[in-house]
Design a protein that fits this description.
Blueprint (H helix, E strand, L loop, with lengths): L1 H18 L2 H12 L1 H16 L1 H25 L4 H25 L9 H29 L1 H20 L15 H14 L1 H30 L4 H21 L3 H12 L3 H11 L7 H19 L3 H26 L7 H27 L4 H21 L1 H6 L10 H5 L1
Helix pairs in contact: 1-2, 1-5, 1-6, 1-7, 2-5, 3-5, 3-8, 3-15, 4-5, 4-7, 5-15, 6-7, 6-10, 6-14, 8-15, 9-13, 9-14, 9-15, 9-16, 10-14, 13-14, 13-16
Length: 415
């Protein structure tokens, strides 16, 4: 992840250095991100065939080879922009393989009772690398492009060496027999038949769409008000800070809930609400909390005014609950049978990532025509409606309060 985040910064920097054209920055960034829209689902089927550890090792080795080749072209002075676009495209596709495979791999490396804690630690480390990787990439590129990409290659090769130390995949079939499209359909069916995974995927997709819109509004306001770039970057980083805190709080959520319950028992009307919610397991209502935090994130700039502090609090709140819900979602995915978990992860990731890609485009079209506060209202209204419906309609609410129903344990799958 550290390598992925640093190279995500150095690709556009190198593109501009080669061409002095902002248009090529966009093309290189597009080449590195578009594979996520095209390869998530087939990646899941490939991983289920050959095993997540093997796929991750091969992907990281090939990523290292590609970046090493880029370094060689840089040293020889023969690197062209089309080389960079091609490398970014292939390396981006391989990074999708690793991203999907790691979610399938982690539950098989720890004891069943430790899966949620392991996923929480992993989520926290991912969010930490998001914060650390971008400035590190800029720093290394400032020393020299060759140093930044050499460091990337070293990170990818090191990841492959570490992964090779794990036990061989126990679920890999290693056979090319069978129709790939049929296996992909199995992943779609598995996710759709699981009420929680289906609803949670749709909820996270919707939240991603709204949050990306919020970020576009903030950037538009920051540009209009000539906000210092350092301050703007710090505000955007608040979502990562919240994500780290949320991920590391996840294993202690039940303890926090109990302490909070003791405190609110002193307040009659709050205690009555808490008793109605206490019967549910903590993870079961996390998606509803995430939905309402999205509403809070969208309304804070309206209530406090479109000011830096309001946006910082909004992104901190959505990042905090996002870290918690990510662990909840990944824990639910870990209960899918191990021989098809990667396909289900691929389908879910495709939906949620598509919103990240489409959200800024749609919002930017609206921002060009109306004032930012109007855009916030446009985003806030559907967020309130969806959150209200998912909370008050029993048939909808039950789909987000049924973790484990319709899923199977990895042990059951292997038997």
């Amino acid at each position: 992840m550290l390598g992925s985040r640093t190279i995500g910064v150095t690709y556009p920097l190198l593109a501009y250095q080669l061409t002095h054209s902002a248009a090529w920055i966009g093309w290189v960034m597009f080449a590195s991100t578009v594979p996520a829209l095209l390869t998530h689902i087939p990646a899941g089927a490939v991983i289920d065939r050959f095993g997540p550890r093997r796929v991750m090792v091969i992907s990281e080795v090939v990523r290292g080879v590609l970046v090493t080749g880029l370094c060689g072209l840089l040293l020889l002075g023969r690197l062209e922009i089309w080389h960079l676009v091609a490398i970014a495209l292939v390396e981006g596709a391989l990074s999708v393989n690793s991203s999907v495979a790691e979610t399938a791999l982690i539950p098989t490396t720890v004891k069943p009772g430790n899966v949620e804690t392991a996923l929480a630690m992993h989520e926290g480390s991912v969010q930490s690398m998001v914060l650390a990787g971008r400035p590190l990439g800029g720093f290394l590129f400032g020393i020299g492009p060759i140093f930044s990409f050499a460091a990337n290659a070293a990170m990818f090769f090191s990841a492959a060496l570490i992964l090779r130390r794990l036990q061989p995949d126990i679920t890999a079939r290693g056979s090319l027999r069978g129709k790939l499209l049929a296996e992909i359909k199995t992943g779609l069916t598995e996710l759709w038949n699981d009420a929680f995974l289906r609803s949670a995927t749709l909820v996270i997709t919707f939240i991603n769409l709204m949050v990306q819109g919020l970020i576009v509004v903030f950037l538009a306001k920051a540009t209009d008000e000539r906000l210092p770039s350092v301050l703007a970057g710090t505000i955007l980083a608040m979502s990562g800070v919240g994500g780290i805190v949320g991920a590391f709080l996840s294993p202690r959520r039940e303890d926090i809930r109990q302490r909070f319950g003791t405190w609110v028992s002193r307040w009659t009307w709050i205690a009555a609400t808490a008793r109605r919610l206490r019967a549910r397991r903590q993870g079961r209502s996390m998606m509803l909390v995430h939905l309402w935090s999205c509403v809070l994130a969208l309304t804070l700039p309206l209530l406090l005014g479109t000011m830096p502090l309001a946006f910082a609090l909004s992104l901190l709140a959505i990042g905090l609950t996002g870290g918690l819900s990510n662990v909840t979602m990944r824990t639910a995915l870990s209960r899918v049978p191990t021989d098809r978990v990667a396909r289900v992860v691929g389908v879910s990731r495709l939906a949620t990532y598509s919103a990240v890609a489409i959200g800024p485009l749609l919002t930017s079209l609206v921002v060009q025509r109306v004032e930012p506060y109007v855009v916030l209202i446009v985003l806030c209204v559907p967020a309130i409606l969806i959150s209200g419906l998912m909370t008050t309609v029993p048939a909808l609410r039950d789909t987000l309060t049924s973790v484990g129903k319709g899923t199977h344990s990895p042990a059951a799958a292997s038997s």
